[in-house]
Design goal:
Order of helices and strands: EHEHHEEHEHEHEEHEHEHH
Strand order of the largest sheet: 2-1-5-10-9-6-7-8
Structural class: alpha/beta
Distance between the termini: 37 Å
Mean pLDDT: 95
Low-confidence stretches: none
Helix content: 25-40%
Number of strands: 10
Radius of gyration: 18 Å
Strand content: 5-15%
Length: 343
């Protein structure tokens, strides 16, 4: 079967203090996208909660207990990350939605799945909440995929912020490839090109740090010259995407210049690799995105990229002179020359 969306109206209940970027309006945008997909005859299902056992594949059990203890309270976990009384329960649903998406795709009932979740996850470390993230949804999903027989999982993160939690989870694990395009230097401060993994996992962390102001053309270059070649050489059994939309030119929390169509192009390109390498198995999981109009349009572009019969990337031309992509490719090639064949 084609694309399925995993979403719950409960995500709208993930509220935080006024003025915080993770206000319910962000979740309501995803609610609208899910309703539109349902109106078109698409399938939308509600998730079940992740279990403690599933979370413990990524997170320290004591940490899970500390987050559970926030239930019923509004708690500041760090200067950026707050809970509301229902955040723990809804974070379990976010991780559970990712697990559900993985089960459907790896199990073969669906070719692709999109988990429209709140709160996001890629900053969450093994024992620490960060950057609006409580549990690392995509990491929990990747570990679950491996229990189902997907021996090699590739995670591509096109959120504007580096996914420090995801990188650290798999830094020493050669069975999980982590590839990130992100504004650098920027929050959380990780993601330099020479961060390529540890021990037997060296080379399976691929960072493409881009200077502020990167354009559609810059992203096309790093995808064509590094992201896609590495994915094809890795030959994953499943492609997962940390789908953040805060590199959009309208987003207030960053300084990139991606247009809506670029998110469709990136998603199409990744779907194309999934078709080549693993029978089309691809799972997207939402991360950031803080301009409501841009978020809605970019989500729609990503959904269309998963459902269009043609998965050829349709990269827009920015018309802006920029060498940011060339510099990112050069630094990545230098860091990875011993691990991947990059022209």
């Amino acid at each position: 079967m084609p694309l399925i969306l995993i979403h719950s109206r409960r995500f709208v209940e993930h509220t935080t203090p006024p003025g915080h970027p993770e206000r319910p309006e962000r979740a309501e945008v995803m609610d609208v996208i899910a309703d539109a997909w349902r109106t078109q005859g698409g399938e939308v299902v509600a998730p079940r909660a992740a279990t403690e056992e599933q979370l413990a594949r990524v997170h320290d059990p004591d940490y899970v207990g500390r987050i559970a203890a926030t239930s019923g309270s509004a708690v500041a976990l760090d200067p950026d990350t707050y809970t509301s009384p229902e955040s723990y329960e809804i974070a379990l649903l976010a991780a559970g939605a990712t697990i559900d998406a993985v089960e459907r795709v790896v199990g073969g009932s669906h070719s692709s799945a999109f988990a429209l979740v709140r709160p996001p996850g890629h900053h969450a470390e093994r024992d620490r909440a960060m950057g609006f993230c409580l549990f690392n949804n995509v990491a929990v999903g990747a570990r679950h995929a491996q229990t189902l027989g997907a021996a090699r999982v590739a995670i591509v993160d096109y959120d504007v912020h580096h996914g420090n939690g995801t990188q650290h989870t798999f830094a020493a694990d050669p069975s999980v490839l982590y590839v990130s395009t992100h504004q650098y230097p920027y929050y959380p401060g990780t993601g330099a090109a020479d961060e390529i993994g540890e021990g037997s996992g060296r080379g399976t962390t691929v960072n493409l740090p881009l200077d502020a102001g990167a354009t559609d053309d810059d992203y096309r270059l790093v995808f064509d010259d590094v992201v896609l070649p590495v994915l094809r050489q890795f030959r994953p059994d499943l492609v997962m995407v940390s789908a953040g939309f805060d590199a959009h030119e309208r987003d207030p929390l960053a300084a990139m210049r991606l247009t809506t169509d670029a998110f469709g192009a990136m998603t199409r390109a990744l779907r194309g690799v999934a078709n080549e390498c693993c029978g089309g198995r691809i799972v997207l999981v939402t991360e950031g995105g803080y301009d409501l109009r841009a978020l809605a349009a970019s989500l729609d572009a990503a959904v269309s990229a998963l459902t269009d019969a043609d998965c050829t990337p349709r990269w827009p031309a920015s018309g802006i002179d920029s060498d940011r992509g060339r510099r990112a490719v050069a630094t990545a090639r230098a860091a990875l020359r011993e691990h991947w064949k990059l022209q």
